Amino acid sequence: MKPGIHPAYGPVVFRDKAAGFAFLTRSTATSDTTVEWEDGHTYPVIDVEISSRSHPFYTGQTRVLDTAGRVERFERRYGRQGGRDDRRDDR
Question: Does the structure show a pLDDT above 90 at 11?
Fold first, then answer.
């Protein structure tokens, strides 16, 4: 790597306040806010809105969408007019 053109890469704490969850990792992201970590060192902290502890996919609280009902409702509303087979006969 060329020296002097890349951002600094160091330890950063990402914190999800809604879930009360934080983790220490390395990143080029920086912050003026700092937090004292479990090891006694102070690291920059970046607050995030969603993490693996608060995202519905990871927590098992996902909602299943009724895609079959949506297709049926679309067909009922607009009808099924000229399928793909009709278009291919014109060639």
Answer: yes
